[in-house]
What does this fold into?
Amino acid sequence: MKPIIDLHVHTISSGHAYSTILENVIAAKEAGLKYVGISDHTSKMPGGAHQYHFDNMIVVPKVIEGVRVFRGAEINIMDEFGTLDLKDTSIKRLDYAIASLHGPCYSHSHTLNQNMNAYKAVCNNPLIDIIGHPDDGRYPINRDELAKIAKETNTIIEVNCSSIKPASYRLNGLENTKEMIEACKKYGTLIVVNSDAHHAVDVGKLDLGISLLKELDFPKELTLNFNEDLILKLFDK
Ligand SMILES: [Zn+2]
Ligand SMILES: [Zn+2]
It folds into this structure.
């Protein structure tokens, strides 16, 4: 069984990524994907895209080179109250939204309780579909509790292939991802494996994440990458 979607892909509009939508879509097609999600960084990330960038994504064709393209954003979580740096009205125009913690927007000095408050608030925000890379040891969290809240709020947990690469700048990404997968298995929480590509060559490179799920015997029916019906139900607006 092969994954058919990668929902975390950055373009030159993120400010520190190096490929265009077209280059990423062609790469997705070559990687055998049927679906790809474009999720550029929002405005509070240095060089991130302006609100109008997201509001105007309606001009991006739904299908390019035979690949269905979902319009998304990787939105910054700004504080422990789950404040986001993209307006609700703008998020509603997109097909999906990822919310993540990033150093330039949310400092690494926050406590476990503050980080959990932030994630709880974001999971309870119906506009957010996916929690991006909850695997960085610089942000202490309770992964068991996050998996439980995500299940209760229909929020998807990301397995981020950039975090589990040996060269990742995130702290203890592999160990933390394993712990996250085990917790999702316990509660029946939906997982999506994403590349977090910042260059087209990485689009659809999901092997590290997919093998980890296999190694930990994570159910295929809870892995979004294999469930076309669910993908269409959730994101095909
Ligand atoms: Zn980035
Ligand atoms: Zn990120």
